[in-house]
Amino acid sequence: MSALVVSGVTASYGAGPVLRGVDLTVTEGVTAVLGSSGCGKTTLLRVVAGFLAPDSGTVSIAGREVAGAGRAVPPRRRNIGYVPQEGALFPHLTVAANIGFGLPRAERRHSVRIDEMLELVELPRDLADRFPHQLSGGQQQRVALARALAARPALVLLDEPFSSLDAGLREETGRAVARALRASKAAGVLVTHDQGEALSLADQVAVMAEGRFLQIAAPADVYLSPADEAVAAFLGHAVMLTGTLGPDQVAQCPLGAVRARGELPAGPVVLAVRAEQVRVSADTTLGTTATVLDVSFFGHDATIRVRLDTGEVLTARTPAGAIPLTGDRVGVLVDGDVVAFPGHAR
Predict the structure, then answer these.
(1) C-alpha dihedral over 137, 143, 144, 146, to 10 degrees?
(2) Pairing verdict, β 187-192 and 155-159
(3) Cα four-point dihedral sign 97, 103, 105, 107
(4) Predicted pLDDT of residue 156
(5) Along the chain (346 residues), what's the average pLDDT of each consecutive run of 10 residues?
(6) DSSP annotation string for 86-125
(7) How far apart are CA 152 and CA 202, in angstroms?
(8) C-alpha–C-alpha distance, residues 220 and 203, integer Å
(9) How far apart are CA 323 and CA 292, in angstroms?
(10) Cα(284)–Cα(304) distance, integer angstroms
(11) pLDDT at 110
């Protein structure tokens, strides 16, 4: 039985459509709904949670239809957990009282379930008597997840729950939350605009743009085999270059000869070149010549933007060992094969 089935859902605010016939099935694990701000991902979460009624389509949770055809099951009866951006813990309640808030009174009086939840989200038992303001941001989000899981929901909805955390704490908390969801056997739907978060935490990634899903697949499939140019450009910030593909699957483009991934007919193609595939060399006799526009140094690596002599601007992600300076002339090469899509004859 699927934890969540969304079928043909449309939704709008006033006259403006936000969701345009959305279909999504979540069976187990973590599904990340990934998209830029305003694409409709939070609206979808609100429809699933019951905070917003869809204009059309149906929503089923654990095999039970909760929205559609005039049916609207209230949020509290949908057997879901919900973790908002800031956790929204009750400030006047202890950690234990927050976790036990949605439990039956008899179970709330005993600490066994609360102890289980603290262990599940990897927090020590001695935090149970603290108040939210005595916790770090990451600890607060774990308590919010423990509260959402305490009532044993079939589905947990997470609305950008790590967005307010700093980078290191965000990654640590995200991994702990993903482990807890999988250990509890509850399916999770994580709404995020962070590509790294979606690809590293989820079992399934649903890429959304303008109220529609462009691709729904495993993280590796979405990244390595994007369904179309829009997915490729969004994931990994690939630069799209036009070229001409020969029968040997080698394309001629502004970067010279590059090998295309997959099997496409000879003719015009669009190539998705990602930053990690671009190599910058101080030797201008190698590859295609370019000028360094700017360099962003991150310690472990650097991001270099270059402009080819033909005018195209590309980004290279390189190790920190040999970094050129702004204005340097360099050679640009491509490592490995490149994702390609059929182009249009001009």
Answers:
(1) 150
(2) parallel
(3) negative
(4) 95
(5) 94 90 96 94 95 95 91 91 86 93 77 89 92 92 91 93 83 90 92 93 96 96 93 89 95 95 92 94 94 92 94 91 91 94 76
(6) T----TTS-HHHHHTTTS-HHHHTSSHHHHHHHHHTT--G
(7) 20
(8) 10
(9) 10
(10) 16
(11) 67
pLDDT attached to residue 236: 79
What is the total residue count of the chain? 346
Are the C-beta atoms of residues 281 and 333 closer than 8 Å to each other?
yes
pLDDT recorded at residue 211: 95
For 160, other C-beta atoms within 10 Å of its C-beta total 19
The separation between the first and the last C-alpha atoms of the chain, rounded to the nearest angstrom, is: 49
Residue 128 is encoded by which pair of tokens? Answer: 């149970």
Tokens of 172: 């640590």
Tokens of 205: 């990634």
Cα–Cα nearest to 148, from 192, 84, 198: 84
Phi, psi of 169 (to 5 degrees): -70, -35
Which domains, and CATH codes, for the chain?
4-231 (3.40.50.300), 238-342 (2.40.50.140)
DSSP labels, 250-314: EEEETTEEEEEES---SEEEEEEE-GGGEEEES-TTSSEEEEEEEEEE-SSEEEEEEEETTS-EE
Strand order in the sheet with 204-209: 80-83, 155-159, 187-192, 30-34, 204-209, 212-217
What pLDDT is stored for residue 103 in this prediction? 84
